Amino acid sequence: MDEREFDEFYTASFQRVTGQIYAMIGNRDEAQECVQEAFARAWAHRRKLDKAEHPEAWVRTTAYRIAVSRWRRTTRGRRPADRAVSAPVTAAAVSESHVALVTALKQLPEAQRQALVLHHIADLPVHDVAREMGVPEGTIKARLSRGRAALAALLADEEGLSHA
Amino acid sequence: MPDPIEELENFSIPGPAMNPMPAAEVRRRGNRIRRRNNALAAVGGVAAVALIATPFALFAGGQSSPDSVDPAPQPTTWVQEVPDGFDITTGIGDGQTEVTTSDDPLLIQNVCGVGWHVVPEPADQLTASMANPDSEGGHTRYLAVFDDFAQASAAMAQFDEAPSSCDGVYDDEGTTYEMLPADVAGSSAEDSSAWVQAMHDEVGMTGEGYVTVAQQVGNALLIDTAISGGVGDETVRDLAVSNLVDRSQDVVGSMCEFSVAGCGDNGEAVDPGNDQGPAQEVPAGFPLSDQMPDGTKERDGYEQQHVDVCDNQSWTADDTIDARQAAYTGETEGGWDRTLGVYATEDEATLAFMSAKTGVQACVLDSEGGKRWVTTLPSSLGDSSVVYVNHMGSGDGAFVVQLVQVGNAILQDTTYVSDGDPQAIQETADQLADSSTGVVDAMCAFTEDGC
């Protein structure tokens, strides 16, 4: 992969991958940082990336692992809570339903959340979701089914609260 | 009640449009990651140098470094022991089966008919194992800590080479195996590799096998090996590797202890940065003659050694604040010279590089159809690079010139190829690129972050 090919790949994929990571972790600034770091590592290891069948999946998986690694350190108290786990620094006018969705996603088990994001936001078929998450297809189908049900229940609760 | 699927499929990022880092800056960050790793390997010892040696066809005498080159300075002190309480068991097992630890070395059986162990011998090691009571194998994780980064890199390279030492299917103690390399995606380690030992019966692959993943951070190597089913299928092999990688990421994260700058206050690896800024002169001991033949001489300053069709349009070291040149005249007409020029700032180096590149591109057009002409070849070294060929005439040879910018410095390699055949010219350009990678990596000294 030469410079031009990488730049085209980066330009075409950055926003999409950042959106997917944001959906997985609920923090836009953190998602952007992790995705940029993942692309930097992709360039550093571009020969490996050339051999990867799905370079965007490589970047997304790397970005997600960076995000999870940073989040786990925070929850273990190795560092004080910082902007990576607090509310996004970027002041943004967002719709109530978007806030409800992001809040609900964060309450799901990590595996269900990741499966839902990869399938419904990243538009990956079940087979590719299974490959990216490293589990059998049957497991993915179960996670999607339970995740959808849990998400629906959480959104219904939220709607009930907001209309109370 | 809102439809969750519809909500997900219409998901978008809220707020103002994102302002991502420019692609060129992302590549620069990636170059810094790569240079930091490779430069540490280059200064660390003989083992790392042996891995990158590439014969250069024009010179039959080998490429040992000339006596005039001083050894490069040693890197930061490495953590050479597994710290007390360092936990490598996270992610092994199901939380119910016992995991035992020991300081036994790792020995993986049935690797191309021999037992495989880490080479060189680590300074310290720790092993965690979970035996699967229902079958052979289970999951073993091994942390090897070496004296320095170069040794860890050598061990990683030796791991990487294991599949290629087998030739197809082989027998070992009554069982038939096949070694297969596997892709590792998304590890947060600095480098990673994997292979699979797939079992065969008289019909073919049985589906059972052993999956082994190696991940390097600094001067430490983490190896996970586990038995897995379904490895006869490439997709399932990838899943098995991905699973092992995923289960080890907590430990890989903790391995910042072994990285260049250790773990920062936030528990993450810290980019060591460079308090002093980019170098303003060629550092003492800089490996300018790396991979050049015996008899190469270095000198301060420079002299143009080659015929340049472009004449004042290509690069010279005239406006640099420091320059050094390595030249080999040898027995071949034209020889090989390498010039390093240092500018006061990266902006000045960039301006000089772009000016030269633009000049070369104009020269390609201007010289077309002439008695001597210029062509260019693809190149992707350093922050920016260009390769151009000065053709001396039909049936005559050519000067191949490679120009690479890193930070506030520009490196130029020039050599003569007597055969003007396009294939010979391309081979020469490839060899110039290969033989200069060590120098390009050491040019991290000319970046804001340093080496």
General description of the model:
The complex is a heterodimer of chains A (164) and B (451). Chain A is mainly alpha-helical and 164 residues long. In chain A, 76% of the residues lie in helices and 0% in strands. Chain A contains 8 helices and no strands. Chain A has helices at residues 3-25, 28-44, 46-51, 55-75, 96-107, 110-121, 126-133, 137-162. In chain A, helix 2 (28-44) crosses helix 4 and helix 6 (110-121) packs across helix 8 (137-162). The longest helix of chain A has 26 residues, at 137-162. Chain A is globular. The termini of chain A are far apart. Chain B is of the alpha+beta class. In chain B, the strands form 3 sheets. An 8-stranded antiparallel beta sheet of chain B has the order 1-4-5-10-9-8-7-6. In chain B, strands 11-12-13-17-16-15-14 form a 7-stranded antiparallel beta sheet, sandwiched between helices. Chain B is elongated and about 75 Å long. Chain B starts with a helix and ends in a 9-residue tail after the last helix.
Percent in helix of chain A: over 70%
Number of helices of chain A: 8
First and last CA, distance of chain A:
56 Å
The biggest beta sheet of chain B reads:
8 strands, antiparallel
Strand content of chain A: under 5%
Q: What is the 3D shape of chain A? A: globular
Number of strands of chain B: 17
Topology record:
The complex is a heterodimer of chains A (164) and B (451).
Chain A: H1 3-25, H2 28-44, H3 46-51, H4 55-75, H5 96-107, H6 110-121, H7 126-133, H8 137-162
Helix pairs in contact in A: 1-2, 1-4, 1-6, 2-4, 5-8, 6-7, 6-8, 7-8
Chain B: H1 4-9, H2 23-44, H3 46-52, E1 100-102, E2 108-111, E3 114-116, E4 124-130, E5 139-145, H4 149-161, E6 169-172, E7 175-182, E8 191-200, E9 205-217, E10 220-228, H5 234-254, E11 297-300, E12 322-328, E13 336-342, H6 346-367, E14 373-377, E15 384-391, E16 398-406, E17 409-417, H7 422-442
